[in-house]
Specification:
- With 481 residues, the protein is α+β, with helices and mostly antiparallel strands.
- It folds into two domains: 274 residues, Rhopdopsin 7-helix transmembrane proteins, CATH 1.20.1070; 173 residues, no CATH class.
- The chain contains twelve helices and ten strands.
- The strands form three sheets. It has a four-stranded antiparallel beta sheet, with no helix packed on it. The chain has a four-stranded antiparallel beta sheet with strand order 2-7-4-5.
- Helix 5 packs antiparallel against helix 6, helix 7 runs antiparallel to helix 8 and helix 10 runs antiparallel to helix 11.
- It comes from Lepeophtheirus salmonis (Salmon louse).
- Keywords: Membrane, Transmembrane, Transmembrane helix.
- It holds the Pfam family GPR180-TMEM145_TM.
- InterPro entries: GPR180/TMEM145, GPR180/TMEM145_TM.
- This is Transmembrane protein 145like [Nasonia vitripennis].
């Protein structure tokens, strides 16, 4: 009877701990849902502009290299109208679509205090190449539009209506046979005097509403590539990766839940929870990306939530690696520093989430940098290296107290594999510095997702019921943490 009571007490404690973990996840999700969805910029863009702000950066978009065989090109099209249609109709500002070579000088001069000088210097380099029917008929670039467009009509520069996408007021056709590149869209309260051909600041109060699409491909073509059409060049084909990984985890999650049911130890339950959270994260990201492929907006809040769930999943995976390194379920059934380890893990997770949102604001979209070239990204690398050092210290201590030759060999191989998992991110982040910004994001995402997925598969295989008894103490009836 006493043994049964002890067993019942331990099982109840175990259930309570699992309930605590579930409660933490629910609270975590509730907090995440309170964050604004505006953290993700959609590439069908709605917004307003008022001349009191002088300059408004709209977005950056990577257009792919024009296909010589099909002349497939990028398009920017949309509508821009005045919010006060009965006001001053002749007051115009400028929409500028520029590649990086022209944009940086233009953008760098926007902050000049003298707005007359600012307008002149911003467009100094652009003037020599941008076509203007009154001031530069020899111009070869179609960079500028005077906005707002006429009511129920086209923008002034659209002198060939057949080139404008049906139902819209302006169209840019981005054609580059040499390379893919980023283009920058902005609105500035400057207007060209058609008599003097000088740029002057707009003094009048003008408020505009814009609705733009930026796409890779012809919007009038019925056969669009959904993995590429709505996406900037640096994000193309990632939807295919997300869907592939989603199917992998749809297969992996029930397998690990089966293993957790047949093994009476929390380490397998933690692994099942980590895989399930990864699955939920991939579902959120895949749904957002799939909707984005259709409408250019997606479900940004769900995408953000998916990112955070993946951070939590990787945090749980890190905890599992540390626990195994400390010998839990290998050489010992009880961890003595439970409170300290739990506290450090929660702090580690919350810091990662905080850094995720910090990165959203820290990364300047105008600069061609990735997350690991920012302060939050560097802190993430440092935290990962810190966790790796702690793991190596714990693993060394575990091996000193283990005398079974087979388990020592297992710990040696497990330590080497875990070290690769810890160290790959700093190495990949360093290599990414050498890669063009157009391909860097896909390189980082592809390597990170592949390595993390492979790590989960290896751990599931190692802890599988039919073989785990060789190295792990998972078949016992009583499990304590």
């Amino acid at each position: 009877m006493l043994n049964n009571n002890i067993l019942l007490y331990i099982v109840n404690n175990e259930l309570l701990e699992m309930k605590d973990l579930v409660s933490f996840l629910l609270l975590f999700t509730t907090v995440l849902l309170s964050f604004p969805s505006s953290l993700v910029v959609a590439l069908r863009i709605h917004g307003n502009f008022n001349t009191s702000n002088f300059f408004h950066f709209v977005t950056k978009f990577g257009f792919q290299k024009t296909d010589v065989r099909t002349s497939e090109r990028g398009f920017i099209f949309g509508n821009i109208s005045s919010l006060h249609p009965h006001g001053k109709q002749k007051v115009l500002v400028t929409l500028a679509v520029l590649d990086r070579g022209y944009f940086l000088e233009y953008y760098g001069n926007k902050s000049l205090a003298n707005k007359s000088r600012a307008c002149e210097t911003m467009f100094k380099k652009i003037n020599s190449v941008s076509y203007d029917s009154s001031c530069n008929q020899d111009g070869v670039e179609d960079f500028l539009r005077s906005i707002p467009c006429t009511k129920d009509g086209l923008c002034l520069e659209e002198d060939r209506p057949e080139n404008v996408v049906d139902g819209y007021q302006f169209t840019y056709r981005i054609q580059d046979y040499l390379q893919s590149r980023f283009w920058y869209v902005s609105i500035v309260a400057c207007a060209r005097n058609k008599t003097t051909c000088k740029w002057e600041p707009v003094i009048d109060d003008v408020e505009l509403s814009y609705d733009m699409w930026l796409v890779n491909g012809n919007p009038e073509n019925a056969n669009k590539n959904l993995l590429r059409y709505q996406f900037s060049c640096d994000k193309q084909d990632l939807l295919g990766l997300y869907l592939l990984l989603l199917f992998v985890f749809l297969f992996l999650s029930p397998i690990q839940f089966y293993a957790a049911i047949h093994q009476n130890h929390n380490i397998t339950k933690f692994l099942a929870v980590g895989i399930f959270i990864e699955l939920l994260g991939l579902m959120g990201i895949s749904i957002h990306q799939s909707l984005f492929a259709i409408n250019g907006v997606g479900f940004p809040l769900l995408g953000n939530l998916g990112d955070i769930l993946q951070i939590l999943s990787q945090s749980i995976f890190t905890l599992i690696i540390l626990l195994l390194g400390m010998g839990w379920a290998i050489t010992r059934q009880e961890i003595t520093c439970k409170f300290i380890l739990s506290t450090l893990w929660i702090l580690y997770t919350l810091i990662h989430v905080y850094l995720y949102f910090w990165k959203k604001y820290e990364i300047d979209i105008i600069q061609n940098i990735d997350e690991y070239q920012t302060i939050p990204g560097v802190i993430i690398i440092i935290l990962r290296i810190g966790a790796m050092i702690y793991f190596l210290y714990a693993l060394k201590d575990t091996m000193l107290h283990e005398f079974n030759e087979e388990r020592l060999q297992f710990l040696l191989h497990f330590g080497a594999a875990s070290l690769v998992w810890f160290i790959y991110l700093p190495i990949v982040a360093f290599v990414a510095f050498q890669i063009s910004a157009l391909w860097r994001n896909k390189f980082l995402m592809g390597i990170s997702y592949s390595v993390n997925t492979f790590a989960y598969i290896i751990l599931v295989h190692s802890l599988w019921p039919s073989r785990s008894h060789q190295y792990f103490l998972l078949a016992l009836q009583v499990s304590i943490i």
